[in-house]
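Standup notes
- DV: blocked on the single-chain target, sequence here:
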Amino acid sequence: MEMHSIGRWIVGIGAAVLLAAAPRMVPAQPQADDEPQPRRTWDAAIGFVGGYAPEYAGSSRWAGSIKPGGWLRIGRVSIASRSSFVVRNNEPVAGGGLRVDLSPNERLRVGLGLRHDGGRKESDSVDLKGLGDVRRTVRLRLGASYPLDGGPRLGASVSVDALGRGGGETGDVNVSRGFPLAPDLNASLGAAIGLGSARHMQAYYGVTEEQSARSGYPVYTPGAGLRDVSLSAGLRWYFARDFVAFGGVSASRLVGPAAASPLVRERNSWGLSLGMAYRL
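- DV (later): unblocked, structure below
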């Protein structure tokens, strides 16, 4: 069965689960290391986040940005612009989006969601001239995590291009750990390995004959495999009554078929983010 056919099946199953889960909304339970707070059936936050990162994965040029964002949870259903804005509990949200919490208990955390994938624009960098755009799409993501002995949490996820716009399939395996530094200050550390299907690798790291003629890059057809390895660290400071400030730094290295792409000017990269949110 073709990968895009598998993706359509997953999309159909995912939509059915989303519809089935929504009527049975129940309040999400706080984790043991959360700050004390009254139980509510909803939570929300609004704020902004700024970032500094490469213009695209593999670029040697960096760019800064600042964007508004927010988060809303009603029972088991939540929507977030990105995971940084989830400020009331430890709900695992990778990259934000619409998500249904399917966790059977407090240890095994499972979530199914939809998120916007902005793709990549040719105008994002002068090094992408002639390659055209990677189309925007919606991704269906299934993720799960479980705590290991000693405190770390092991996780994994898989996502598909729900609209079939050439984004392909991606996955990751990760381990993370959070710990308090002070009553109102929490830290987190994480490591991850990313993977991509042949279609995903072609979209972001491949060069077709037509693209080669326009851009001057040699033709390159990558296969499926490992994409990158990354490390991250973050801080979260709860100050005043309803405000939280957060920041993080990450380092990554492209590997496998992605690293061999002629589009890659720098295999190693890093990123920085800073933001603040008001808890409603």
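- Follow-up: The chain is about 15% helix and 45% strand.
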